[in-house]
Amino acid sequence: MAFYNESLNPKKMKNPTVTILKEILRTKIKLDEEMEKTNNAILNEFMTSFVAEMKKNDEVFATVYQKNFYAGSYYSDLRISKPDEFDINLVLKFPFKEEDVEVIYQPQTPSFVKYHLKNPAKYEDRYSKLLKVLFQDGYLIPEEMRKWIQSVVDKAKLTYRLPASCRSLNCTASGPARTIKLTTRSGIVIDIDLVPAIQCNLPKPPGMDGRVAAKCETRLECFLVPKPYQTSKQPPISASEQKRLLRVHFPEAENKIIHNIGCCKPVIKLLKLLRDKEKWKILASYYLKTVVMWMILENNDKEYWKDDRMGERFLEALQKLQLYVSKKCLPYFFSSKNNLLCKISEEQSQNINGKLARIIRSIQNDPWSLWVIFDATPTFNKL
After folding, report:
1. What residues have CB less than 8 Å from 2, skipping those under 6 apart?
2. pLDDT, tens digit, for every residue of 199-228?
3. CB-based contacts of 168: which residues, under 8 Å, 6+ apart?
4. pLDDT in tens, 342-360
5. Is 152 helix (H, G, I), strand (E, B) or coil?
6. What is the pTM of this model?
7. Full set of structural domains in the chain with CATH
8. Are 199 and 227 in contact, with CB atoms under 8 Å apart?
9. Where is the Mab-21-like HhH/H2TH-like domain (predicted)?
């Protein structure tokens, strides 16, 4: 039920838009602290014991597994839903000398690379099984990585003894990940996406915006993951080349871009809330984060991103998003040659563009409309 609070009367405030947005964030994003604590404890217990089982059941995994890297919105403080979904990179380290390996950017689509072992024969005697399972002609093959990690997880599941806190474990395939659905004794289902990933340092990719390059180190820490190359609306690449392509991710550089930048994280969360409410599934969370990263690149002044300017920045983010959607082009932050919106259809573009235009006008005319836009119940009265 709405209640009247004199101190929260938007007509008497300098920034009614900010007040309302903060209330929407407070009421719409409810991360249960007790559930968070419980789920994290269960997750840590499970990962420690399950990885041990994976190593016990697969010789190659035991050879190359290095550590877990916890990724995704939960760990970058961008989650807007309950803490029951986790993205974990299973970081692999191959037993090859650095000088024997080259990682090559694909020039037409620099968000993908090839991992090449220059002289496989040098390692044939000692690591023949590893080379047979994951490599062809010296190249790491993403499809083989996906099949392999699925088989490793499935074998471990057969012999794994569930911890006392869990009732059941089921596995499904999802893109480059093997998704584990862990049901706890209390009936909560925890989704864990396990993704095999190669951690390495690479030079800046071709096509990087000069402003981005100026903010980045000479070499960037990254992860190579076996995400399939989508041929539709992407640069034409031969089938033999496609089968060797691994997707590059730069989580450390991204976290540095948005770290300690005032209201940027609340703005990203608001975009995600709106996306979910409008069911714009084509707009992945990473795309919305990218919109804000480009905004930060244009102006990272602390005054510009102050908390009391959240309303201005959110409106600006909506306007930027509308422009990208209307052009059906959102440049990848680390290489402008790549278009993140390459799969959006003309119909989707027109529908989202039109709705964003109406939302922007509505907010500009009356901040109170934000309650309706987010399908939220006002927490104070409007005079």
Report:
1. 377, 378, 379, 380, 381
2. 999 999 988 999 999 888 889 999 999 998
3. 162, 182, 183
4. 999 999 999 999 999 999 9
5. helix
6. 0.90
7. 16-30+255-374 (1.10.1410.40), 33-251 (3.30.460.90)
8. no
9. 263-356
